[in-house]
Amino acid sequence: MPEQSPHPLPGSPADSQPPPRPCALLLSGAQVVTVDDERTVYTSGSVAVDGDRIVDVGPAREVEARWRPRRTVDCRGRAILPGFTDAHTHLFQSFARGIGDGEPIRPWLNHFMWPYAVHLDAEDALTAVRLGAVEAARAGITTVVDHHYAPTDPETVLAVADAIEEVGLRGAVARGMTGDRTKIADARGLPDALYRHGTAEELELTRQCMAARGPDARVRVWPAPLNLSYGDRDLVRGAVALAREHGVRWHTHCSEGAGDPLSYLEAHGVRPVTWLAREDLLDARATLAHAVWLDEEETAAVGAAGAGVAHNPCSNAYLASGTMPWLPLREAGTVVALGTDGPSAGGRQDMFEVMKQTLFAQRLASLDPAGVRCEDVLEAATRDGARYAGVRDAGAVRPGALADLVVVDLSGTAVQPVHRAVSALVYAARAGDVVMTLVGGRVVYEDGHCPGIDEEALGARARERAARLVERAGFGPLTVPWRHRERRLGRTS
Fold first, then answer.
1. Which of 169, 189, 194, 426 has a Cα at 20 to 30 A from 118?
2. 2 lies in a domain?
3. What is the pLDDT of residue 16?
């Protein structure tokens, strides 16, 4: 069939079509992986954006005939997909990247992470958060749940939220709270310096932060008891009440290590998630990080409540913590999202790596290569992540949705040939293949740069402050190559 004339005669069907409408941006000619309700994939599709919303998506020629964009980006050889949600991260830990390796969770916390957190000052934290937020934007992450627990004074917490917004991301700062010290915390040797405030004061400080960032804020503040297994029970009760009062989620570490539910059972006569359910504290606002060591009753309770779980396979492997029961949780009705657990326990905030590691870990655990597929983990990283974080109208490329989008280059030799876009994205692509990230229609990363961010100056400041922190905290020996290997083998020289 010959191509239609660009100048149809008056009265012809083409002449009766409405003229193209204006829009801000047209992403043209990509493989569009919508993750919409029908899971549509357009092999040559376009996405039109105006304001903070997607206004059209479909076959390239059809979409482009309907719009007159102020800017068009040629996306041939690329994929467009919903932005990723990092459901559990610690942006302040970016200075800890690459040290502290080779210990399981409890010694790692006691020997490394708690001292790191204690020695971090406010300016260190803000610089580390900015660095982590830029890394996230460059990796196609549009929403973060940042579990922040060092330092936690309201001024710093609100400045952390500001810093995330300045980079252009959306999400939540989950303010880590310790509250009154418990016997389990004593037994685990948590440092006194982590216990800055009692339970009542922690809840009041969190309330102040939440009030300062109301419903219109792009980055909210959530209450976040630091860890369910050794935290004060009244702190958890208060956190849930705050979340319900302010209409947000609440967040906590949950049963990450094998000993977590056992120590709670020994102290209280009940497992931690079972206690939440019995106390009517487990609800759809609960977002539980890790949830590796749940029994059948707890798994069923999490699903029945419609709660969310952030699966962190890279950090679970890094710390040898175990493998989360993916299929039982999903089958029970749990909203399972994916998280990086920050830059310190695994090295990168790379959701491509997280998706791939999820597949591999689950297949190794079940010995079933068909039990979890690449489509499942892509959904967890996008649409399920948006549900988990409480971001409405996100997680899918469809008209009316928030224009939280990531454009990924699929033309590299490590990705070619692309037989199936979803498979290529999960198995072959990496964070470095991201060429553009949009949040609410705003370009927050494009072709190597985050607009408005002096990344060179940020990197220099981060290196300087991190070096001072390593010296101040006495982490120098952790930076020596092969030191841990020689110690493990019994060598001293």
1. 169
2. no
3. 65
The alpha carbons of the chain give a radius of gyration, in whole angstroms, of 23
CATH assignment at residue 270? 3.20.20.140
State how far the Cα of 179 lies from the Cα of 209, in Å rounded to an integer.
16
Q: Does 202 fall in a domain? A: yes
What pLDDT score was predicted for residue 15?
Answer: 52
Say how many CA atoms lie within 13 Å of 444 toward its Cβ.
29
Strand 141-148 with 170-177, pairing: parallel
| The two three-digit tokens of residue 175, written as one number | 């303010």
Note the pLDDT of residue 11.
45
Residues β-bridged to residue 405: 82, 438
Angle of helix 154-167 relative to helix 199-212, nearest 10 degrees, comes to 40
Question: Going by C-beta distance under 8 Å and a sequence separation of 6 or more, which residues neighbour residue 315?
Answer: 321, 340, 341, 342, 345, 346
Please, is 389 exposed, middle or buried when counting C-beta atoms within 10 Å of its C-beta (0-12, 13-18, 19+)?
A: buried
Q: State the DSSP H helix or E strand holding residue 42, giving kind and residue range, or none if neither.
A: strand 41-50
How far is the C-alpha of 349 from the C-alpha of 144, rounded, in Å?
A: 11
Residues 308 and 416 both lie in one domain = no
Nearest to 128 by CA among 89, 184, 102, 100: 89
Check whether residue 387 and residue 405 sit in a common domain: no
pLDDT single digits (tens) 375-413: 999 999 999 999 999 999 999 999 999 999 999 999 999
CB atoms closer than 10 angstroms to residue 195: 14
How many residues in the chain? 493
Where in the sequence is the domain holding 117, given as residue range(s)?
84-394
Quote the strand ranges of 51-94, DSSP E: 53-59, 67-74, 78-82, 84-89
User: Would you place residue 286 in the very low, low, confident or very high pLDDT band (cuts 50, 70, 90)?
Assistant: very high
Which range among 104-113, 436-445, 482-491 shows the weakest confidence by mean pLDDT? 482-491
Residue 213's closest CA among 250, 244, 172, 156? 172
pTM of the prediction? 0.94
Q: What is the pLDDT of residue 322?
A: 95
Q: How far apart are CA 346 and CA 353, in angstroms?
A: 10
Contact 316, 323 (CB under 8 A): yes
- Please give the pLDDT value at position 4: 36
User: What dihedral angle (degrees, nearest 10) is formed by the CA atoms of 198, 200, 201, 204?
Assistant: 150
> pLDDT, tens digit, for every residue of 29-75?
999 999 999 999 999 999 999 999 999 999 999 999 999 999 999 99
